[in-house]
Amino acid sequence: MSNPPTLFRDPWAKREAWRKHPVFSNRAMFSSMFPGLGIAVVAFTAYVVVDNIYLQVKEKPEHH
């Protein structure tokens, strides 16, 4: 007679399940590391563009 296959169960599997949750993925961790970076980059870029356009319009020839 053959012996039935032995089942190996991890007793800690339920307690380790949180590590596989999508909230703890590398992408989610990276995006939450710098929460306002995207908005800050867009705002700074808009500021630089508007400032450069404003300075080009306002430039006057210098008279000595």
UniProtKB/TrEMBL annotation:
GO CC terms in record: mitochondrial inner membrane
Chain coiled-coil ranges: none
A Pfam family per the record: NDUF_B12
Membrane-spanning segments: 28-50
Localization of this protein: Mitochondrion inner membrane
Keywords (A to Z) from UniProt: Electron transport, Membrane, Mitochondrion, Mitochondrion inner membrane, Respiratory chain, Transmembrane, Transmembrane helix, Transport
Highest taxon of source: Eukaryota
Biological-process GO terms, alphabetical: electron transport chain; mitochondrial respiratory chain complex I assembly
Annotated membrane topology: Single-pass membrane protein
Record carries keyword Plastid: no
Annotated InterPro entries: NDUFB3 (IPR012576)
Function, as annotated: Accessory subunit of the mitochondrial membrane respiratory chain NADH dehydrogenase (Complex I), that is believed not to be involved in catalysis. Complex I functions in the transfer of electrons from NADH to the respiratory chain. The immediate electron acceptor for the enzyme is believed to be ubiquinone.
Protein family according to the UniProt entry: Belongs to the complex I NDUFB3 subunit family.
Protein name (record): NADH-ubiquinone oxidoreductase B12 subunit
Organism: Athelia psychrophila
